[in-house]
Amino acid sequence: MEEDNWTQTQQRSLPVNSRALLLVNRHARQGEKRLIEATYYLEKLGFKLTEESTENPKHLSDIIRRYQHKVDLVIVGGGDGTLNAAVDGLVETQLPLGILPLGTANDLARTLAIPNSLAEACQIIAYGELRRVDLGWVNGKHFFNVASMGLSVKITQKLTKEMKRRWGIFAYIATALQVIWESRPFSAEIKMKDQSFRVKTVQIAVGNGRYYGGGMAVVHDATIDDQRLDLYSLEIEHWWQIIPLLPAIRQGRHIRWRSVRALQGQKFEISTRKPRPINTDGEITTYTPATFQVIPKAITVLVPPI
Known about the structure:
This protein is α+β, with helices and mostly antiparallel strands.
């Protein structure tokens, strides 16, 4: 494994013999087969590893809490759902996070410019910068990337683990097209500061980072440490109206379209006539009515040096 130029000159942010808790989602698309490879790279880079795994990702935060005083950092291998399952433990213990992108979409890794190459991701954990990043929060649940309702929830409900494992990012695309075709608008009220908006929409997304849903951007210039949330509401009446919007949604430039309401702030409240499920980082975790907030500089992550 050849080191990049920056690894040859960069000082390590953590000591060479740092004790690392390695958590890998064996059910992630690349989890099991990449575990041996990751262990090899990390040990070669000097980390003293304690490997733990669980059949239920919901136990990840408990494992992190258990090792709070026994390790110097936590390395999580998996996708956005796995990282989201670990986030509460990271907030409580304040242990630094290293990321191995082993999932299908890897949107948090994309936001942080962490490459999908396992060798390069391990180099970043060894030689990267320690960077404080924001988290989103909705109804007591933290999220890295996006919390949303509408189309994205229906995609999550239809997208099975088997589909993601077999088809990868193409599973997202095929499922999204089916959901868009079946979409129906719903009514919601959005409140921020002293303003209130009544909307008829097919999708409301509240972003903390930049990317979600396999590489779509919430807003083209969003960053995960800008201490703001970016909200957009997709206010179309017929499914076919979303087709010309798709390229702009991919780039995060849909906020310029007339049928898209775009807001920025540190806190939003959203209510609907009946409770609607909310998707946080790819998992349905709460329902409306919902309060969304940004938690500035909430945790530390190892990222490529600037």
